[in-house]
């Protein structure tokens, strides 16, 4: 082996060591029990425009720790239909992100039940980016559909960013490529979710990572009533008050409990309601 290759070999071995430790940590994790969680099939072709509850939680208590005593979320009952946009709001540490994690099956259900119908897509609050091209990050293994892909790029406000990159959407990102800003990572993660053509979409505060006009663009063209996903089931964690009136319903969490749910106008008009304190 040429001596000049030694630094590259050492770097590769170091990366392999990190990868092995990550795999080891994953493999020794406790498996999360699927008790109380039901996954059912759903076909848009079969059901058509018929109203169908794609997400249902019935008086559910969930824990992060399987031996936990105090539930992270308690007595949560809600339902989201196939074309509904539900906004989940509340103060910091009220349980908003935990609700999405529970629906995804990442928490322990002690009482009650969680039922979902169809495929799910999730855009996390902390986006995960692969060491690959932007296109590969968005496609995430799905077949390249040029028309739908370009529509997704425009809707997620990535068009201008890609034009500024050296190789457009074929630009490498991650550890071996260019660094993206927090807002760019959030939009790539959002585009990945949109491109998956799922039945259920869960967005954990995607508007917080972008500036106001980009947030308006994303809500209008992706999440909102006139967006690409307006016929899909959407759960949006946000505290962006201006968008709540455009949501079909709003769920207000406080201390791990669902204290109010309904139309924003109705909740906001209650003089003794909890929504007034948030607004």
From TrEMBL:
Q: Report the GO terms under cellular component.
A: endomembrane system; fungal-type vacuole membrane
Where located?
A: Endomembrane system
Quote the Pfam families the UniProt record gives: ABC_tran (PF00005)
UniProt-listed SUPFAM superfamilies: P-loop containing nucleoside triphosphate hydrolases (SSF52540)
Q: Which domain of life is it from?
A: Eukaryota
> Could you tell me the membrane topology recorded for this protein?
Multi-pass membrane protein
- Indicate yes or no for the key word ATP-binding: yes
Enumerate the spans annotated as ABC transporter domain: 55-278
Q: Which UniProt keywords apply?
A: ATP-binding, Membrane, Nucleotide-binding, Repeat, Transmembrane, Transmembrane helix, Transport
GO-annotated molecular function: ATP binding; ATP hydrolysis activity; ATPase-coupled transmembrane transporter activity
Q: Does the record carry ATP-binding as a key word?
A: yes
**Which PANTHER family does the UniProt record give?**
ATP-BINDING CASSETTE SUB-FAMILY C, MULTIDRUG-RESISTANCE LIKE PROTEIN 1, ISOFORM I
Q: What is this protein called?
A: Multidrug resistance-associated protein 1
Organism, by scientific name, is Zancudomyces culisetae (Gut fungus)
């Amino acid at each position: 082996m040429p001596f000049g290759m030694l630094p590259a070999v050492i770097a590769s071995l170091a990366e392999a060591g990190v990868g092995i430790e990550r795999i080891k940590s994953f493999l020794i994790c406790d498996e999360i029990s699927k008790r109380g969680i039901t996954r059912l099939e759903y076909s848009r072709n079969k059901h058509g425009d018929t109203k169908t509850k794609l997400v249902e939680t019935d008086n559910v208590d969930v824990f992060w720790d399987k031996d936990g005593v105090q539930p992270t979320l308690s007595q949560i009952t809600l339902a989201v239909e196939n074309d509904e946009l539900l906004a989940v709001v509340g103060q910091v540490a009220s349980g908003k992100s935990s609700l999405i994690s529970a629906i995804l099956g990442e928490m322990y259900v002690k009482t009650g039940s969680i039922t979902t119908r169809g495929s799910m897509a999730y855009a996390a609050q902390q986006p995960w980016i692969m060491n690959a091209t932007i296109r590969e990050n968005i496609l995430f293994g799905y077949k390249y559909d040029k028309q739908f892909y370009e529509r997704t790029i425009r809707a997620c406000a990535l068009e201008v960013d890609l034009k500024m990159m050296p190789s457009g959407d074929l630009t490498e990102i991650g550890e071996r490529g260019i660094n993206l800003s927090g807002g760019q990572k959030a939009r790539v993660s959002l585009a990945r979710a949109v491109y998956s053509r799922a039945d259920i979409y869960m967005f954990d505060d995607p508007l917080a990572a972008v500036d106001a006009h980009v947030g308006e663009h994303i809500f209008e063209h992706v999440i909102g009533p006139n967006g690409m996903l307006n016929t899909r089931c959407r759960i949006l964690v946000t505290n962006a008050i201006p968008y709540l009136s455009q949501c079909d319903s709003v769920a207000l969490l406080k201390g791990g409990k669902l204290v109010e749910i309904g139309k924003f106008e109705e909740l906001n008009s209650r003089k003794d309601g909890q929504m007034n304190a948030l607004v």
